[in-house]
Write a structure and sequence with these properties.
There is one protein chain. This protein is of the alpha+beta class. It folds into three domains: about 15-65 and about 265-320, no CATH class; about 75-170 and about 205-255, Aminopeptidase; about 350-525, no CATH class. It is built from five helices and 23 strands. Strands 7, 12, 15, 17 and 21 form a five-stranded antiparallel sheet that branches. α2 runs antiparallel to α5 (about 325-345). The chain is elongated and about 105 Å long. Residues about 175-185, about 190-210 and about 450-490 have low confidence and may be disordered.
Length: about 525
């Protein structure tokens, strides 16, 4: 609708400055090529200028280049939190995912439901956002908030050199007493460790993230404005990826001109934009061959009249890291953070898979099987023969640090719980005890991060119909429903002991398969002894 226009056709997007008695800029005394913004009440005897991007007003709204040719901010065109509290449109577009770009992203994710980590990169700011933009932290599962802040946020702040809140450095909570018991369940699966669902607090119920006191750190925080109780935006991708897809989603503004500037003579990180620009102007002439700044030249704007084109080229301006040491430093910091997160991912294993022959028979249907603790007793009336009665046992586990689903993701209807299979020739393997596949809930990770337990009465979650789910967000009228969340749906720790009793005809092979939607799949051959 009103995208950028290269008015002089030189391939560089710069600025247009023109004399304006009400303008907010004057030329710098130190270097007249630089424009300095005046304070609102500041007076001056110097000529005033207005400075605008090199562009024209294509849609006649008095603004220039304020949006793309489609007129839609794609990052406000997603289904989560698209409506305002008054049920009027808050996001962009005719409806959520109306833009082809947003729809393509949604189609990619819904066709790749194994994604557990989502990272968006933007260029300027020097911080990372985690959910939510539309809602306060009270609308999130507090275990997710704890992992975001005390694990991922802590590491990010360490990498960028910002102080970590003291509450984020505390020892992570242990599992509640009495929930670390282990056990075996013949013909089934039993978990070990902590379980239970914490419900996100409702509006008005104060819930401090991870025990944090005071405002969140600048470098790692949610976009929602707690002071004003105001959303940062509506229909933001960050929120959709967490609340409706069930992923650890983050959005990073990579570059901070104060913190990340390296190698500029005459600048040492001061909060003085003019000093930074002067140092950068000299640096780009010496180190970059002058390619970051265009000298001002006379130009007649088709709408604003006489003035000059020039100044910082947009791709080299303050919104992007300076080529060279500054850019390398930003890349170094953020690849380390991405590697750190990747190492947190679930890592599934099948351990101690054994298969023991208990009996042979010609008629497996005549057998009776009894189970006492970890001992199976088989009794039969038929003759010994071609069927081997085999007891299969295995321990399946997640040795990664993150669970196979977020606490939020475990309750989404579009996500599946983890399962274990015993696979063999279906014509020659007959299940006497245990099913070919058994649900496991969610295999937790080794982090052990949890939030304070919710009151027992608060064991429901409110969600809206449609899409893949919602994070207790306010749905459209008539779409409110209360959903009981079974704690077993979230799992019982990071390990399960599983067992089967099968009748095998001949030499049919067996495999134990541990499958997780977002944690991957592992296959273990079982040797029958």
């Amino acid at each position: 609708e009103d995208g950028p226009d290269d008015l002089d056709g030189d391939g560089a997007m710069v600025q247009f400055r023109y004399r304006d008695d009400k303008g907010a800029f004057v030329a710098s005394d130190a270097d007249p090529r630089l424009m300095v913004r005046l304070a609102p009440t500041e007076t001056t005897t110097k000529p005033r200028y207005s400075v605008v991007p090199e562009d024209r007003d294509n849609d006649g709204d008095g603004k220039r280049g304020e949006d793309g040719e489609s007129g839609i901010d794609v990052n406000r065109n997603f289904a989560e939190g698209w409506y305002r509290d008054d049920q009027e449109q808050g996001g962009t577009g005719a409806y959520p995912s109306s833009s082809p770009e947003a729809r393509a992203i949604l189609e990619f994710f819904t066709n790749h439901t194994n994604i557990l980590l989502v990272q968006s990169f933007h260029t300027s700011g020097g911080f990372t956002y985690r959910p939510m933009a539309r809602w306060p932290d009270s609308r999130m599962d507090q275990r997710d908030v704890s992992t975001y802040d005390r694990v991922m946020g802590r590491r990010y702040l360490e990498l960028i050199g910002e102080a970590v809140p003291a509450s984020w450095l505390e020892r992570r909570p242990a599992a509640p007493a009495g929930e670390e018991e282990s056990g075996d369940l013949a013909g089934g699966a039993q978990g070990q460790g902590r379980g239970g669902i914490q419900r996100a607090a409702q509006p008005g119920q104060a819930q401090t993230p991870a025990g944090q006191a005071g405002p969140p750190p600048r470098g790692f925080r949610h976009p929602y404005n707690d002071d004003r109780r105001a959303p940062y935006g509506y229909g933001v991708f960050l929120d959709w990826a967490y609340a409706q897809f069930g992923s650890w989603s983050m959005s990073t503004e990579l570059w901070n001109w104060q913190r990340d500037t390296k190698g500029l003579a005459g600048y040492a990180g001061e909060a003085d934009r003019t000093k930074w620009e002067l140092a950068y102007l000299a640096h780009q002439e010496k180190a970059l061959g002058g390619r970051a700044f265009k000298p001002w030249k006379p130009f007649k704007h088709p709408e604003l009249g006489a003035g000059e084109l020039g100044g910082w080229i947009s791709r080299y301006g303050a919104s992007n890291a300076i080529p060279g040491d500054s850019l390398l430093g930003v890349c170094e910091t953020h690849w380390q953070f991405e590697l750190f997160k990747a190492k947190l991912l679930p890592r599934l294993v099948v351990q101690d898979a054994t298969a023991r022959v208990l009996y042979t028979t010609d008629d497996p249907g005549a057998l009776t099987v009894t189970q006492a603790e970890d001992q199976a007793t088989v009794r039969g009336t038929g003759r010994k023969g071609r069927y081997r009665i085999v007891e299969v046992k295995a321990t399946v586990a997640n040795e990664g640090q993150l669970a196979t689903h977020l606490a939020r993701g475990a309750s989404l209807r579009g996500n599946r719980e983890d399962v274990v299979w015993l696979i063999g020739d279906r014509d020659r393997v007959h299940f006497l005890q245990g099913a070919p596949w058994m649900p496991l809930g969610v295999l937790e990770g080794t982090l052990g991060t949890s939030a304070p337990p919710a009151p027992e009465a608060q064991d429901t979650q409110v969600s809206g119909r449609g899409g893949r789910g919602s994070a207790g967000m306010q749905p459209l009228p008539g779409q409110l429903r209360v959903q009981r969340v079974d704690p077993a749906q979230f799992g019982r720790g990071s390990r399960r002991n599983v067992s089967w009793l099968v009748a095998i005809e001949g030499d049919a092979a067996l495999k134990v398969v541990l499958a997780s939607q977002k944690g991957g799949t592992v296959v273990q051959d079982v040797v029958i002894k």
